[in-house]
Write a structure and sequence with these properties.
The complex is a heterotrimer. Chain B is mainly α. Chain B has helices at 3-24, 28-48, 52-77, 91-113, 123-128, 130-133, 138-146, 148-166, 188-211, 219-235, 247-270, 282-306. The chains are: A mainly alpha, B mainly alpha, C mainly alpha.
Amino acid sequence: MNLLVDLFSIAAIGAGVFFFLAGTVGLLRFPDPLSRLHALTKADNLGLGLIVLGLLPRSESLLAALKLVAIWALVQLAGATAAQLVGRAVRRKGSAA
Amino acid sequence: MSVLQALDIGLALLVFAVAAWTIFARGAFAATVGYVVYGLLLSLVWIRLFAVDVALTEAAIGSGVTGILLIGAAARLRGGETAGDERSLSGAARLFTAGLCILVALALAGVVLLLPDQGPSLARQSMQNLAETGLGNPVTAVLIAYRSFDTMLEKVVLVLAVVGVWSLAADRYWGGAPGEARAARPEPTLAFLAQVLAPLGILVGVHIFWVGADEPGGAFQGGAILAAMWMIVMMARLTEAPQTNAFWLRLALVAGPLVFLAAGVAGSIFAGGFFAYPPWLAKPAILFIETFMVLSIAVTLPMLVAGPPRREPRQ
Amino acid sequence: MADFLLATAGVILFTVAVGLVRILSGPGDADRMMAAQLIGTGGIGSLLLIAAATGARGVEDVALGLALLAAFASAAFVNSAAPAEDPDAADGR
C-alpha cells in the first residue's frame, strides 16, 4: 500500500516537473510576450497542480491536505488574473510594454 | 555530495545570480522585479536554514508590501529617468564602493564559516523557560516575552515612519487622503482579484497570527498579510484610503505601541518588573498585546505604501 | 523518496533559473512581470517539495502566504502602468 502511494506520488510529481520544463521551453522559444504568457500560465498551473496532487497522499493531516489544495487554487487564481492584467498591459502599450 | 547539498549550492548560486542581475539591471522597474524575485528566493533559503518564521515574514513583506512599494515608486520615477542618471558616480568611486562591499561580505562569510560547532547562543535557556510563558513557539516568546521592550520600540518606529511619510505632503493637503479616489467603474480584473482574495487573506492572516503562539507565525506576519489585503482592495479602487486626520485611523496606528506600553507599565505594578508578566496571566496577556499589534501593523503598512496625502481634507 | 523530492525541487529551481535568464533580459516590462510570476509558482512548488522532503514544520503556511501574494506584483505593475485611466475610455467600450 505504501509502495502504491509512493509510486503515485512519483508519477504525479514527475508529470508536474515535465510540465514545468515544457512551459520553460515554451517561454524560451515563443516569439512575443503574449504567447510567452500563455505558455507560462498554462504549464505552470498544471505543473503545480500535479505536484500538489502527488504530495496530497503524503500530507500529515486533513488540514495540511486542505492547505495544499487551497494553495493550488490560489495560485490558479493569481496566475489567471496576472495573465489577464499583463496581457492587458501588453495590448495597451504595444509589444514593448 | 548528497542531493540536499547540491540543492543548497544550486539555490545559493541562483540567489547570487539574481542579486547580481538586480545590481546591473538597467532601469528602476527591472531592478524592482529582480528585487522581488530575490526576496522570494530568500524565503526558500530561510526555510533551508529552518527559520520558518523569518521565511514567512520575507514572503509577506518581500513579495507583498515591498514589491508594491517599489513598483509604485519606480512607476512614479519613470517620467524623470534618463540614461544620463547613470553617470552620477565616477568609475573610481564605483570601484571603491564595490571593493568595500565585497570586503564586508567576505568578512561576514568568514565569521559564519569559522563559527565553532557550539556557537554562543541562548537557545537552550529560552527553550527551558518556554513553559512559563505558556507559548510553544520560541520565536514568539523572544519577541513578546524575553525582548518585549525591543518589539514595542519597533512598533513605535513604524508610527514614526508613518508620520515621516505624511509630513511629505504639501501644507494644504495635510489631513487629506492619500492615493486615488474610489473609481466609479473599477477595473474588472483587479476588482475580481480583490473581492476573492480579501476574505481569504483575512482568514489566512488571522490564522497565521493566532497559530504563531505555538507554530511558526506571529503578529507581524499575520498583520503583514492583513495589510496586503487592504492594499489590494485599495489598488483595485474598490475603496479609497481614509483621510489622514480621521480619528479612528490615528487611534489604530498607535493602538499597538500604546497597549504594549500600558502592559509594560502594568507589569511593573502587578508583576514586579517593567514588562514582566504574572505567570498565570502570561499567555492571555501576550495574545492581548499581539491582537493590538496586528491591528497597528495592518493599518500602518498600507498607510506607508499609500504615501503622503494628495487631496485636500474634506470638512 | 526524500531524495527524489529534493531532486525534483532542484529541477524546478533549475527550470526557473533558465526561465528567469530569458525573461529578465526580455525587451519589455511585461516580460519582467512574467519573471515574478514564474518564480512565484516555481518557488511555491520547490517549497512544497523541500518541505515534504525535510519535514520542516509550518512550511505550508509560508507557501499559503506566497500563493496569496502571488498576484500582487502584477497588480501593482498594472496599477502603476495606467494610474488614473478610466478603463471604459481606454477601450472605447
